[in-house]
Specification:
Layout (H helix, E strand, L loop, with lengths): L10 H36 L31 E4 L25 E3 L33 E7 L14 E5 L5 E3 L13 E6 L3 E5 L9 E6 L1 E3 L1 H12 L4 E5 L4 E5 L3 E8 L2 E2 L5 H4 L6
Antiparallel strand pairs: 1-10, 2-3, 3-4, 4-12, 5-11, 6-7, 6-10, 7-8, 8-12, 9-11, 12-13
Length: 283
């Protein structure tokens, strides 16, 4: 049997050999780690998104931008106590409730005209929220795109051919609470029942639910003072909520369009209906 006998005269050779072995092991370890990382990334890229169903199409809000977040000077916001309806309780968490947070619902592009349309029937005797009052100049905007909103279960809403619309704006433009014929007290039109950095949900009653008309506006830089007041009252239990008069600023447009949905007692309506939301603007 052969035995390796250390060379006592040249200990530096042993040290060099040991160092070489250690370096080889380290390089092998690093290379194997890099290879594993590449494999992991490749596998992750190959995994399809599974948060949508066949009937549900989530489209990116490509018109959003980082501009338009300047504060709105000289604006103060106040609150009103919420009236309690024992038959329709308030949400347990508005941020996770698709009736309040529009971002939780899917949608797809509608094959329908991007313009005002007239339906049969008369207008509401008490004017509902007028969408042209979203803008300081009360113009009839260009419809950039129209959509079919989905129910919370992913099925498209089919009551109307269009239930959501993108309206053209100027980036940074002040967007206002739509004015209507409703006075919930002291001249206020609506309560802010949900708000985050990019959207507001306004209910035109004193209730914290989807009674009456509800207007959703997305694509905003929500006014910081309004968002702060909403969050404070939400955390305090929602016994009061911010109140807005028609024409009060809610924020500034982030990009070249804002997204609008309007509901009547929870049912999504056609935002193009000129005899309802654009009275006097029918072609």
């Amino acid at each position: 049997m052969l035995r390796l006998i250390p060379n006592k005269r040249r200990p530096w050779l042993q040290r060099v050999a040991a160092i070489g072995v250690m370096m080889a092991v380290a390089v092998t370890f690093l290379l194997s780690g890099c290879q594993a990382e590449k494999v992991a990334v490749s596998k992750a890229a190959a995994i399809p998104h599974t948060h949508t169903s066949e009937r549900q199409t989530f489209l990116p809000f490509v018109i959003r931008a980082t501009s338009g977040c300047a504060a709105i000077p000289g604006v103060e916001y106040r609150s009103l106590p919420v009236f309690v309806n024992p038959w329709i309780p308030p949400p347990a968490d508005a941020a996770t409730d698709p009736g309040y947070n529009l971002a939780l619902l899917g949608y797809d592009v509608a094959d329908a005209p991007k313009e005002l349309v007239r339906y049969n029937g008369a207008s509401d005797p008490t004017p509902p929220p007028q969408l042209y009052t979203l803008f300081g100049d009360e113009r009839t905007p260009t419809f950039v795109q129209v959509y079919r909103l989905h129910h919370s279960d992913g099925a498209p809403i089919t009551t109307f051919p269009v239930t959501m619309a993108d309206l053209e704006v100027t980036p940074g433009e002040v967007v206002r609470a739509p004015d209507g014929g409703y006075d919930i007290q002291y001249g206020y039109d609506a309560l802010v029942v949900y708000a985050d950095e990019e959207q507001v949900t306004l209910n035109y009653t004193r209730h914290d639910n989807l009674e009456g008309y509800t207007v959703y506006v997305d694509g905003l830089c929500v006014a910081p003072t309004l968002l702060s007041l909403y969050r404070q009252l939400d955390e305090a239990g929602r016994s009061e909520l911010p109140a807005l008069k028609g024409g009060d600023p809610v924020g500034r447009a982030r990009g070249q369009a804002i997204r609008v949905v309007i509901r009547d007692t929870g049912s999504a309506m056609d935002p193009r209906a000129c005899q309802d939301w654009w009275i006097g603007r029918c072609p």
